[in-house]
Amino acid sequence: MRVSTRVLLLLAGLVSASGIFVAVLRASQAPSAAPQSITAAREQQLFQQFCYGCHSERAKAAGLDSAKKLTLDTLDTANVHRDAKTWELVARKLRAGMMPPAELRRPDPATYQAMVDWLESELDRDAPPYTPAPGLHRLNRTEYANSIQDLLDLPIDPAKYLPSDDSTSGFDNIAGALGISSTLVEAYVTAAQKISRLALGEPEDPTLVVYRAREDTSQDYQVEGLPFGTRGGLLVEHLFPSDGDYAVTVTPIFGDNMTPIGFGSVPCEQIEFLLDDQRLALMDWNGGGRAPRTECPGGRVQEAARTGQDGPEAFFGKGAPMRVRTHVTAGAHMVGVTFLATQYAPLLDLDRHFKRSTIQTGPTPGYTFFPHVGTMRIEGPFSATHATSSPSRQKLFICNPAEVRLKADATGRAVAEDACARRIVQNLATHAYRRPAAAPDVDALMEFYRLGRKEKDFELGIETALARVLTSPQFIYRIEEPPASAKATAGQTYRISDIDLASRLSFFLWSSPPDDALLKIAAEGRLKDQAVLEQQVKRMLAHPKAKALSVNFAGQWLNLRGLDSVAPVSALYPDFDDPLRQAMRTEVEMLFDTVVREDRPVTELLTADYTFVNERLAAHYGMPNIYGSQFRRITLGPDMDIRRGLLGKGAFLTTTSKPDRTSPVTRGKWIMTNIFGMSPPDPPPDVPPLPARATDARGSVHEPTMREKMLEHRVRADCIQCHRMMDPIGFALENFDAIGLWRTRDEGTPIDPAAQLFDNTMVSGPVELRQWIATHYTGQFARVSIEKLMTYALGRGLEYQDMPLVRGIARDAAQQDNRFSAIVLAIVRSAPFQTNTKGS
Questions:
Q1: DSSP secondary structure letters along 26-54
Q2: pTM score, two decimals?
């Protein structure tokens, strides 16, 4: 009963985590000097003059909706700290310029600014320290996979082992949302056993893994990572579990269900199989198609395609499947299949092709298509043997178990094996627990080693100990031990150790554990030194692992992850395909990565006069003379002014649209939330949808423009107030359609991008909208960026008590032109990042 015993032991270790509790200190920032031109009495007078009409007890009694949500005449400006939560909301709305509403009278700009400055100064002056306990912080799936990669040099797909993480406050690394359940405990135990076997390269039974091309794929261009002079195909990183023989089979995208033959009718195509950039085979494409018998160059002959139900069967054993069988060693390898490029000479179709080639995969008269790879199927291992040299084994076995078996007698061999195992286990524990391993940690793991060693051999002992490490609470959770002086008193604030600070810093910037250099400095107690800390932060921001900020932080903040679920209606947007989707995401990731690595102002995300494109994205934007799948940095001249900053990027414009139309509301809401930091309330539950698109076959029914539909739609009094703020922002972007293409007409009617914004400013189009934001709200965007980074860094949502600290960091960062490193350094030096609170 070997497996059941080990499972119970691993399970017992993981369940013990329920008794662990950690907390994070939250503190405020020193206040700035109050403006001399405003006093508490003057502030109260200004609120009475400009705000009480909508936010007073009198207005509330009259049934005014705005007064039901907020009343100000009962608050005392001489004692702001008494109602800090409400005043923070007021300050946020004023700083965003959203109050008073556009149709009402406002103070002059200087007085308005002085009002906000005075209120924020008073809030900062009386802000007490904020020290809630955030709870147990579990690694999310990304951090778990990165930890496995660092520990074992083993790239895994965490989705195969663990359920998805909950997301709150905009991110999936928030401690309060990363709970534990019996299902998750079971998943961790199962994952630990499977991963430990993969790490050692145990012989496995044959399995089948299928990689599929996306439904909206287009394979008429070279895929980045595959050789030049090729077209389309698939490229994947596949984790081979054991040394052995593996079969790689390619199947086409099938045309339709009635006559299941391959999509594409261009004859004489050849498919290339590659392993780690080395050719395994080059063979004729046997994926069907509707071409007749054809004589190909070199004397080859391509027979006419199969028809009927024999079509799919030809690719799984019957007929001549496109399959290669080869020996592969255990570990991760890049496997690719691609066509030799023959598409450089244009096809002779009279009909214009759309960018997406797979809109209709059945017969389409008048069109000729190149064949496409539909799936790549990897089967094996056959004749599996135990791995002898894989990246994970080299990482794991820091001493050679084969050498200890050369000892002359059994006693000497056992002693030597035990010593080697102890070295391996100690190294594992140090890196898995993210701190120097203590003797009790190693002793406990050695018991698991001996359990496996007794059952079989040295390697099973190491596998058992590794599985125990991977289920340890000290690996799965970021546990921070309070110092001895803080252990007795609940609620006591204490400075975290350098070791724990190293973990916080590493998971913030890399989404992975600290490397040896950072861990060494922390173990020496030098990380608390501000000069050393700054040096390490700048080193880590320059490290390749800092790409995690672009992929994980920006991917969630800017909703780049949302691109994966975007599916514009192909009948309306036939030029949208998966290569374009991926290019849109890469463009913004590279823009953000440039701000990080070149230490540029974070506000450059709004105004950058450069971007990153490949041939596919450049064609979408209308940029000529850019070829190839690789991305390159280009300067945006006056003719491409509309593409400057985030507001001109296809990723933002596409994720804020509906599948069949633009959405001025969604675009306006995104800008209010992510640039101004003010999320509008959710709509009432009974709001009807916009009218459906007209389906008149003769085309005689006039389809209203999106602007006309929105103006007709917002008739309810409880909807108008929010839509007056959101809709004009979206109207200014209406020249961009639902996939970010520039247009001048909507449903045949010229687009009107003119809009009066919530602060009474008139703009016309995306350029003026961007200039308005850059002129008046750059500081607000910097504050929002700080809030998002702090939320991500601390692993908890920010609350009104955190705002004084945010404003303090914003003031300091502004002195350094809002450079990214200045913001990051201010966050990691702050009290909430470097301290914790003893839980009850």
A1: B---PPPPPPTT--HHHHHHHHHHHTTTT
A2: 0.91
